């Protein structure tokens, strides 16, 4: 289970060092084989391969004759890249993926249960500002009555 926010930096070769606290789990669950794809929110999603495969299969089983569905297939499946953690626990983020998410050197890795989101730090800070607007009564209806 991936939790928490970690501020990181891409190195000069555009590699991301996966935090040490996740490396053991990733090595045991998928031998360090990850899938990186894009998210409509303009961040990247990083999945262990076994967690990505059912999602990819579900997307590919949807009708490609429905234009919005086809667009989502193109976006998520079409941009998915296989990456392997190296001996130092790093993964390479390809130029098209970096460009899509607007990644600079300073990035934020956000644990989301079975996957990670990878954000440019400035974009992540904007997301946090938007999230705080829930306090202004703009809570989605499905969260009404939800309590922590």
Written account of the structure:
The mean pLDDT is 94. The chain is α+β, with helices and mostly antiparallel strands. It has a six-stranded antiparallel sheet.
Q: Average pLDDT, to the nearest integer?
A: 94
How many structural domains can be distinguished in the coordinates?
1
Q: Given this structure, which CATH class is correct?
A: Alpha Beta
Within CATH, the superfamily carries the name Transcriptional regulator MraZ domain
What amount of the residues lies in strands? Answer: 25-35%
Ends apart, CA distance between termini: 19 Å
**Segments where pLDDT lies below 50 for 5+ residues?**
none
Radius of gyration: 16 Å
What is the number of helices?
A: 5
Q: Tell me which CATH architecture applies here.
A: 3-Layer(aba) Sandwich
What is the succession of H and E elements? Answer: EEHEEHHEEHEEH
- Main beta sheet: 6 strands, antiparallel
Question: So what's the overall shape?
Answer: globular
Fraction of residues in H or I helices = 25-40%
Give the strand order of the largest sheet, numbering strands 1, 2, ... along the chain: 1-7-8-4-3-5
Could you name the CATH topology?
Chemotaxis protein chec
Counting DSSP E segments of at least 2 residues, the number of strands comes to 8
Structural class by SSE content: alpha+beta
Topology:
Layout lengths: L4 E5 L5 E3 L2 H11 L2 E6 L5 E5 H13 L5 H10 L4 E4 L5 E3 L2 H7 L4 E6 L4 E5 H11 L17
Antiparallel strand pairs: 1-7, 2-6, 3-4, 3-5, 4-8, 7-8
Tag the structure with descriptive keywords.
single chain, 148 residues, alpha+beta, Chemotaxis protein chec, 6-stranded antiparallel β-sheet, two-stranded antiparallel ribbon, 35% helix, 25% strand
